Amino acid sequence: MALTAMLGHTAFPKLSTSFNGEASLSSSNSPSFMGSPLSLSLSTTFPGNQSISRKKFVVFAAKMSRLEEAMKIRRERDLQVVKKDRKYRPLRRGKVSPRLPVPDDILRPPYVGSDILPEITSEYQIHDSEGIAKMRAAGELAARVLNFAGTLVRPSVTTNEIDKAVHQMIIDAGAYPSPLGYGGFPKSVCTSVNECMCHGIPDSRQLQNGDIINIDVTVYLNGYHGDTSRTFLCGEVSDAMKHLVKVSEECLEKGIAVCKDGAPFKKIGKRISEHAEKYGYGVVERFVGHGVGTVFHSEPIINHHRNDEGGCMVEGQTFTIEPILTMGSIDCITWPDNWTAVTYDGSPAAQFEHTLLITKTGVEILTTC
């Protein structure tokens, strides 16, 4: 389950975002360009401390401008294809049914019973052999539940029906559906359709032919959380949206590939951004990955875009990577339910997520089965 980035990246002022979601230079003396800090001073230096001349700076700026323009054209072309083939209406909230019950004998996370959003725990979650075994069990269950949820995706099925089936499978396994009651979240799974970036609340809306839907499953088993999500295709989906989904999954794989003991966290965002930018997709900055274990959300915060945050991975540590890619704006609008986050311009979004364990030699994906 994606965590809202509570930590502002104030050390790296951003490009301002125009109404249509494209980036434009702000009045800041040190704007961020394509996610990396770039000073507009003529004394700008690059690796090696080699100062560039005015002429070279102009040439460099022109190249970056052409790259941004090419990305803009690609995004606009994909959006035109999607809008032309679009068989669904913009998302509207359906009827949300009451919370489903959980048997009294199932262990609940400590936040259940309060609608206050828990604070992010500052401690990294590093496990001994017993903790790792329990994390593997929670991750494997979450993966099985997600696979099952994917089999339910078809036109006319409601997201509420998916939630009900997922809820039953989780409690039948003796686990608790982690989203249920987290900060007041009313359902057992997140279902984010089309332009919904994340945290979609299951309701009475029926899935339509051509939809894409991210299903985000987290289970709490024997005191440990396993967290995973995937974007599924519903019926006949346009090639443009299929490509967005494919690249989003590849971005997750690129981020995982850099993980190992001692690797800096910022490498994750660098690799994801590099791959997304090849295809002109935006990487959402507001929602981040997070530490996970006995606590649902903790440090480290995993940024999926280029960043200069410090910190390195440690053997025995568990966290999620869960990039969200969009065809257009990376900004979002949050509905009055305080959860559902949709893209500012209505463009489609896709997300994939795994819970990971850092090992001595690399990384283990825990949310597989």
From TrEMBL:
GO terms for biological process: proteolysis. Substrate binds at H199, H297. InterPro entries: Creatinase/aminopeptidase-like, Pept_M24, Pept_M24_MAP, Pept_M24A_MAP1. It comes from Trifolium subterraneum (Subterranean clover). A divalent metal cation 2 binds at D227, H290, E322, E353. Pfam families: Peptidase_M24. Binds 2 divalent metal cations per subunit. Has a high-affinity and a low affinity metal-binding site. The true nature of the physiological cofactor is under debate. The enzyme is active with cobalt, zinc, manganese or divalent iron ions. Most likely, methionine aminopeptidases function as mononuclear Fe(2+)-metalloproteases under physiological conditions, and the catalytically relevant metal-binding site has been assigned to the histidine-containing high-affinity site. CDD domains: MetAP1 (cd01086). GO terms for molecular function: initiator methionyl aminopeptidase activity; metal ion binding; metalloaminopeptidase activity. Residues 134-360 form the Peptidase M24 domain. Its EC number is 3.4.11.18. Cotranslationally removes the N-terminal methionine from nascent proteins. The N-terminal methionine is often cleaved when the second residue in the primary sequence is small and uncharged (Met-Ala-, Cys, Gly, Pro, Ser, Thr, or Val). The keyword Metal-binding applies. Its cofactor is Co(2+); Zn(2+); Mn(2+); Fe(2+). A divalent metal cation 1 binds at D216, D227, E353. Keywords: Aminopeptidase, Hydrolase, Metal-binding, Protease, Transit peptide. Signal peptide: none annotated. GO terms for cellular component: chloroplast. It catalyses: Release of N-terminal amino acids, preferentially methionine, from peptides and arylamides. Belongs to the peptidase M24A family. Methionine aminopeptidase type 1 subfamily. This is Methionine aminopeptidase. HAMAP family: MetAP_1. The keyword Protease applies.
